[in-house]
Amino acid sequence: MAIEIERRPLIVERTEVKRYSASARVNHWITAICFVLLTLSGLALFHPSLFFLTDLFGGGANTRAFHPWIGVVLVASFSVLFVRFWRLNLWNRDDTRWMTQIGDVVKGEEEHLPELGKYNAGQKMVFWGTSLLLIVLLASGLVIWDQYFHGLVSINVNRLAALTHSLAAIGAILIIIVHIYAGIWVKGTVRAMTQGRVTGGWAWRHHRKWLRSEVKDEGDH
Amino acid sequence: MTNAWGDIKHADLVVVMGGNAAEAHPCGFKWVVEAKAHRGAKLIVVDPRFTRTASVADFYCPIRPGSDIAFLGGVINYLLSNDKIQKDYVKAYTNATFLVKPEFGWSEGLFTGYNEEKRDYDRSSWDYQMDEQGFARVDETMTDPRSVFQLMKQHFAIYTPELVERVCGSPRDKFLKVCEMISECSSPTKTMTSMYALGWTQHSKGAQNIRGMAMVQLLLGNIGVRGGGMNALRGHSNIQGLTDLGLLSNMLPGYLNLPTEKEKDFGTYMSTRGFKPLRPGQTSFWQNYKKFFVSFQKSMWGDRATAENDWAYDWLPKLDVTYDVLRTFELMNQGKVTGYFCQGFNPLMTFPNRGKITAGLAKLKWLVTMDPLDTETSRFWENHGEFNDVKTADIQTEVFQLPTSCFAEDEGSIVNSGRWLQWHNAAVSPPAEARSDVFIMAGLHLRLKELYLKEGGAFPDPIVNLRWPYAQPEEPSAEELAKEMNGQALSDVFDPTDPTKVLVQKGKQVDTFAQLRDDGSTASFCWIYAGCFTEAGNQTSRRDTYDPGDTGLAPRWAWAWPVNRRILYNRASSDVSGKPWDESRKLVWWSGERWTGYDVPDYGPTVKPEQAVGPFIMNPEGVARLFTRGMMRDGPFPSHYEPFESPVANVINPKIRGNPAARIFKADLEALGSPDQFPYVGTSYRLTEHFHQWTKHVWVNAALQPEFFVEISEELAKEKGIEKGGWVRVWSNRGSLKAKAVVTKRIKPLMVDGRPVHVVGIPQHWGFIGKTKKGHNPNSLTPFVGDANIETPEYKAFLVNIEPTSAPAVA
Amino acid sequence: MASYQSLDIKRRSASTSTPPTVRSTGLEVAKLIDVSKCIGCKACQSACLEWNNLKEEVGVNTGVYDNPHDLTPNSWTLMRFSEWDNPDNGNFEWLIRKDGCMHCADPGCLKACPSPGAIVQYTNGIVDFVSENCIGCAYCVKGCPFNIPRISQVDRKAYKCTLCSDRVSVGMGPACAKACPTAAIMFGTKEDMKDQAAQRIVDLKSRGFANAGLYDPQGVGGTHVMYVLHHLDKPEIYAGLPKDPQISPLVSAWKGGAKLLALGAIAFAAVGAFFHHTIVGPNRVTDTDEANAADLAEEANGAEPTPETRTL
């Protein structure tokens, strides 16, 4: 291995794979910003000790007023993301194997794992989890959006919606924490969303099947 | 009211019939609640509807509108046949013992002397048998078949529970339960109070409805005692004052009469007003009539009323007929009225048969309205679509709308139901150009007087000679007027028992009507008010809650007529020997030397019990009249008559329609509907949320009860396909209206004479001006006929039909 | 909506600080509504509008006496009329209940409110909305077991009966109690009102209402507005007065367990991630990975890669 290191440094540095188009990146970041704002405003209204966060939005009443609208933007934005990526997130046999070897995943020992497509099972779970929770958040959120949907459902359904909304939001936040941490932990990931490209090595290491198909596509041209 | 509001708390049983005290008198109703809470009193409600009063009652019994006399007759029959009367009271304090002329009788629903053509009675047989000295003959045992007691027993014997059920639709068991509860009050230590209002007066036999209950109360010994009485709940805050001051076309202040055409001179007028006692030694207080009358004349014309000109008797108008509101609008329709002053009321939305009212007003040359509010009457000519469908161009009446101040904007006294004169100050100034009624009337008088002085005229005397002693002639003050009503000495008034002793110095206010004289030395505008504003000051503004014996009478709070007496006939609260019937509720009793107690005795203060002077000192008999002689036009006993529009024939005599002695004009008789076309009974009433048509101008009240509605039973709604909250059309033979439908369990069909009778309840608070939604009033439908004695229109029972309809078109 | 001194505040919405306890708490107040004395005159509604300077809109008749038809941001109290046939004795009863805030000892609105100090409970028991802190989220509506608070569509503030806290703070009773002509609404210390109710219940039982009783539901810790009912066993016949009201378990879960769960889970996730990173270290791409990728690219292109130009 040491020999190889000496032999190919320049070449290695220049290998890059395009992972996300500009529009996908913009789409992602709109969604992400909305999510952050929703998390801040939602937590502000959720827990008294975080109520100070409403100051970020110009006070409690504004926080209450903005939150659902941000939610609407997020849902709209995420819907586009969904259309973009849902096929790539379909589950396959490799994902199941990946899941059974989650210990290796956590340890970062990916050499024991099967070759993966564009997304690993964890990412897919983030995708589907987020999608599902967003539907729940949207439905429950509309019900408790008193300004426009007052009296839409019975008071008990309304209460259930409030509880559901908060639980779903917690779920979503946890998923996003995993998502963000995964991005931080797996070095070289963030640039996929900031610059659109990853290094070939990153793709080789984490999404080799995807890399192969990308390479093949290129060759077919 | 014979008693006072605060006295109701002493009742053991409260009967609300012919009224809806909780709804229409919620503030006064607190005393009923008090009686229930602290005395364990029971409350009975007898009403066609399950009212707000019924909602807090211990017992409710339904009744068909207009059948009250049958019900009360049934109660009287129950009391008499079960011997549930306070016998000692009845014997000593009523005319039950009096013997009636042998010619008097009753058959086929009519008393002796009926003239069908005139719709009137020759009442000469309705009187007592007189002895040689001109006193009525009596039978102390009350067993003589001609005694009032026996005649009464006989008269009411037909009012069996079966008949009551058949006529009133009141289930027999409920009726009997009411009788049983009432009969318990025949004990001297149990009292019942009767609270009634327009539910009894607004019938073609309204006065007899009240007589019916008055008889019950006399039989139970409940008149003149604490927690008893006949208590008329007056609708307007000062309607009692209106009656006291004689604001009726045939009355003078203090219940004196305006002369009729037949009474051409003073001598003739006084000849029927001697009020000679009908039993030996009786007070017969009206013997003082002349003193009150002359004092009134002196108050009107001062120095110009002299012994020589019979105290200006000729200056009083002489009536050919009574000019009640019904006759006035009848004359208007005949084109016989040129101008009309409409002061403080709204006939377009209240008087019966609205079509006739509109037609009458349209025939006037001019109409003056004086009101604090913008009334519909002032705008009767304005088209408001279905709500006032008139052709404005066809109406030539010139309308002068004069805004006046309202009660909160001027000072003066208001007389409550309990006859208390309570002074109030102005809270605010009237808005904009609004002026007091006094200012307007004074201005009118002064201008007329000037015209008469300048131009002469047919008969200027009453106007140019009118006494007008006010500091500001153009606006006499409330104080000046109150002092004038009280009266003063025009020259020194001497003690009749000691002619050297001056009782009242010239120019001083009199203390009581006992100081009034018929020699022209005193003036008093309203003798019963004498004592309200004396040299000691304005008694009506007193505000001391001192209340000895916890009677609720508060003798130092304001001032009650007569002579600050709070319970009328209070001598009757003690037995013949002067000992209270009920020691725990004593009121006035004989101390051994004089009459004393918590109230001003309604009796000679030193007249000994053994003198056997009756407690009903106003009556020449000295006792209360179960048999009223010829004093009422439609009979000495109440008798059941159907309303003029009734779903059933009179079961006693099917040929009699309505009250046979009630006046009805020809066109109005023809405008009556029949049950085949109009099968349902309409009845009108008020709601707590509103006061007449005043409060529809107030936002809060309008929000609390925004829109005109009628109330019907679930059964009728189902039968007619009417939905709760849907629009219905209700019509009578005279008019039609649209309303929202309140479908309720509170009205139930009544089984009358074997078939169901449905009631349509129609509240009366709406109009086409104000903050509420535009609406109609029951007067679009009601018949143009009034009570036989006082012409109060029959608003409470008439015939209608009903159907579902669409919303009215709004102009 | 007067604010008392902070010393008089027992509880404050969305606040974790300990309330002041130095002042002796004094007595708790209560309004006693004796339904058996109420004649449904709506004087209380009128007094409430007048005293609080509220303007209710002039509505329409919908076939009942209830106007307005429900509590609104302007109508903080409302007479509700119920027609009921008593199956036990066949009697018809017209039950009239003055609806409005019950001022619960354990107020669901306060529990649900996310805005610090928008809902306060005074030491005398009055639960009051402090409008300046209200953010209009309508969580109080969800919290309330009696369906009382109403949100104005004009200013997005929550409104309800204040028990005339402004009047009570200067020693007067609520405006509705003052206006009530039959003293069906009484006001005083909670103890006195209970005594008063006990007397009324004796009277009602003597009149045949065997189940007469005081409605002071313990599910919400008792209330500072209580009813004397002829039929305590069937409160629901009084226009749906709840039989055993309590803060909905959904609201309790939302405002209790969920809060802890949420912060706990989030903190756990964050801390977990931190330690994972600490233990496992970053997941880096190795040069071998890069070389393999490059080889793969070369193979695909079928040519010797030119590093400077190779892109995929």
From TrEMBL, chain A:
Entry cofactors: heme
SUPFAM superfamilies from the UniProt entry: Transmembrane di-heme cytochromes (SSF81342)
Keywords: Cell membrane, Electron transport, Heme, Iron, Membrane, Metal-binding, Transmembrane, Transmembrane helix, Transport
Domain Cytochrome b561 bacterial/Ni-hydrogenase stretches: 19-196
Transmembrane annotation, as ranges: 26-46, 66-86, 125-145, 165-186
GO cellular component: a single term: plasma membrane
Pfam families: Ni_hydr_CYTB (PF01292)
Location of this chain's protein in the cell: Cell membrane
Its membrane topology: Multi-pass membrane protein
UniProt record, GO biological process: anaerobic respiration; formate oxidation; respiratory electron transport chain
One MF term in the entry's GO annotations: formate dehydrogenase (quinone) activity
Family: Belongs to the formate dehydrogenase gamma subunit family.
Protein name: Formate dehydrogenase subunit gamma
The organism of origin for this protein: Methylopila jiangsuensis
TrEMBL record, chain C:
Binding, [4Fe-4S] cluster 2: C48, C161, C164, C176
Gene3D superfamilies: 3.30.70.20, Single helix bin (1.20.5.480)
Protein location: Cell membrane
GO molecular function: 4 iron, 4 sulfur cluster binding; metal ion binding
Annotated GO CC locations: plasma membrane
Record key words, sorted: 4Fe-4S, Cell membrane, Electron transport, Iron, Iron-sulfur, Membrane, Metal-binding, Repeat, Transmembrane, Transport
Region entry Disordered, spans: 1-22
PANTHER family per the UniProt record, alphabetical: FORMATE DEHYDROGENASE, NITRATE-INDUCIBLE, IRON-SULFUR SUBUNIT (PTHR43545:SF6)
Protein name: Formate dehydrogenase subunit beta
Organism of provenance: Methylopila jiangsuensis
